[in-house]
Write the structure tokens for this entry.
Amino acid sequence: MIRSFRAFSVLTLALLITPALLQAQNAFGRDGRWEYTITPIYSLPSGIDFEGGTHMDASGELGLAMGLGYNYGERWTVSVVFQGGIVDYDADFATGDPSGPIRVSGSYGQWTTWCAGDINLLDGPITPYVSGALGYSWFDVGVPDGLPHMGCWWDPWYGYICSHYYPTMGVDAFSYKAGLGLRIDFNIKFFLRAGYEMQWHQLSTTEGDAGIGVWKVDFGFFF
């Protein structure tokens, strides 16, 4: 009985003190402040169907994003975000041959520039948020797409060096995304934002827009 009463008293005291602490902690506010974010992301495994019967299974992979944002009031944040990563895939290429599709494994690079907006649902330092963004994506599938090119440069250690490389096939796409999560402003310099979002890419050869689920954690800094 005494232990229960003590536990109840501690919980009650915490509930009474926490709002005051958060109010004091958020006295500086977000309004009118710039922020910079470094974001580890994890793209979930996904399947993409292409026109003609080709199917690709992309593995779950880690990536990285960096963003620069500005807070209009306590509720609105707009930002520009640069995202990139390398994704492994297995694909069944439809050939029209009676023997069936060809199984191919490889990896592709993806780079996206986002113009994003977040709506913080509360004014305080702990708030859920919803987000959306429009972007432009570039995919490099790593498949040679032409004759080799020769390039030469001067290396301070080894002198004049020449080497060749193959141009690789790439595609671009209009992209858009939507997400939700939780934001915590810890102090006047640091905040954390974690959430889930769906990203869609309008590739010209896919059946519908290619959708990929992404978990992310923003490590944010005010300045």
In short: The mean pLDDT is 83. The chain has one domain: 30-222. The first helix runs from residue 2 to 25. Helices lie at 2-25.
